[in-house]
Design goal:
The protein is mainly alpha-helical and 143 residues long. 56% of the residues lie in helices and 10% in strands.
Length: 143
């Protein structure tokens, strides 16, 4: 009897994780350490390559992307680059960043094996949500 109960609890847990993953857009996901292996999402991988090659104009152009994850990643990347004196934001970019930071569009996020959610873009810029992004930026922008 105990084995059956443990099996049922385990299956419910697995199905819950699978269902949570189905509710997000994997091509529009922000995640710095997702799934069991703690791997970055495809969007984060793409931005890592662009930062490493110093392709900042490509990042800037994504401020107008339909992909919400790209909008978020562009904002945090360009703001950090500006802070370090590696990039100068123009007025159009500043206006787009302001819009993105107020946006109620939903972006998919992941963390670890079980955390998969959709969050309004404006809520992605809280201190709590920026923690992993800040760590990622520190490791991927050459000072």
């Amino acid at each position: 009897m105990r084995t059956k109960i443990l099996t049922i609890v385990f299956l419910i847990g697995i199905l819950s994780v699978m269902n949570a993953q189905e509710n997000v857009f994997k091509n529009e996901m922000v995640g710095f350490a997702c799934y069991f292996a703690g791997q970055p999402s495809k969007t984060v991988e793409k931005y890592t390559k662009k930062l490493n090659s110093e392709n900042y104009k490509w990042i800037s152009k994504r401020l107008e992307s339909e992909n919400k994850a790209e909008k978020y990643m562009s904002v945090i990347s360009l703001e950090k680059l500006t802070e370090l004196g590696k990039y100068k934001l123009n007025q159009t970019e500043l206006n787009l960043i302001t819009e993105i930071k107020k946006s109620t569009e939903l972006v998919s996020v992941c963390s670890g094996c079980t955390y998969f959610q959709k969050i309004e873009l404006k809520n992605m810029f809280t201190d709590e949500m920026l923690t992993m992004g800040s760590y990622w930026l520190k490791n991927n922008i050459k000072e």
